[in-house]
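Hi, here's the filled form for the chain we discussed.

Project: internal
Contact: R.S.
Residues: 73
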Amino acid sequence: MLDSFAENLWIAEGNCVDFHGFPYPIRSVVVRLENGDIWIWSPIDFGEALAAKIEVLGQVKHLISPNKFTIYF
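And the returned structure, exactly as it came back:
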């Protein structure tokens, strides 16, 4: 799911993951920069359908992982 939050700003909801015994909802923030590039904070497993929606927005040029655990999702 990709929800518009503001102009050039979207939130991508991921599945809940089990983290130390409790369900933990995950999400990414997708930003279209002034030059049209896409910047993604806290990337999740997008799957084909969500990846296709993001590709329509622009070319992904920046993936920001805010912590070492993000790469596992």
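Let me know if anything looks off before we file it.
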